[in-house]
Amino acid sequence: MKSYVLLLWSILSPLLMLAQAPGDNLPSGKEISLTIIPNPVKGTKIIVKLEGLSNQAYLIRILDNNGNLVAADKFNSPTSTNFKMIELKKSIKGGGRLQLLNEVGRVIAQSKFISID
C-alpha cells in the first residue's frame, strides 16, 4: 500500500507544485507563476497562464521527458499577466516540462505537466 501512495504522489506532485526561480530582472519579492491549461494536456495545443511578469522579452520552451525541444515561443510582456497558446510540433506522451526564460536566456520559472493522447 505504501508503494502505491508513493507512486501516486510521484505522478500527482508535479500538478500540485509550480517550481519558481528568481529572475535577474524581477523586482524584489515578485514571483512568476506558470499555469498550464489543460493539465493533463491532450493533443498539440497548450495554453499557458503567466503571472508576475515584467515588461521585457521572454522565451517559452516546452521539452518532452527526454529533454527534447517540442515547441518554443518568443514574446514581449506588456502586462504582468499573459495567456499564450502554444502549438506543439507533435503530441507528447507521458509528460513534459515548460520553461520560461528571460531576455538574457536564464530559466526564471518552470513547471511540469502530464500529457495524455
Describe the structure.
- The chain has 1 helix and 9 strands.
- The protein has 117 residues and is mainly beta.
- It has one domain (2-116): Sandwich (Immunoglobulin-like).
- Strands 1, 3, 5, 6, 8 and 9 form a 6-stranded mixed sheet that branches.
- A hairpin with a 4-residue loop joins β5 (57-64) and β6.
- The longest helix is centred in the first third of the chain and has 15 residues, at 2-16.
- It is globular and about 35 Å long.
Return the domain count.
Answer: 1
Question: Helix count, per DSSP?
Answer: 1
Sheet of most strands: 6 strands, mixed
Average pLDDT:
79
Radius of gyration: 15 Å
Instruction: Look at the structure and give the CATH class.
Output: Mainly Beta
Instruction: Give the low-pLDDT segments.
Output: 2-9, 12-28
The CATH topology corresponds to Immunoglobulin-like
Short overview:
With 117 residues, the chain is mostly beta strands. It contains one helix and nine strands; from the N terminus they run αβββββββββ. The longest helix has 15 residues, at 2-16.
Helices and strands, with pairings:
Blueprint: H1 2-16, E1 19-20, E2 33-37, E3 41-42, E4 45-51, E5 57-64, E6 69-76, E7 81-87, E8 94-101, E9 107-116
Parallel strand pairs: 3-9
Antiparallel strand pairs: 1-9, 2-4, 4-7, 5-6, 5-8, 8-9
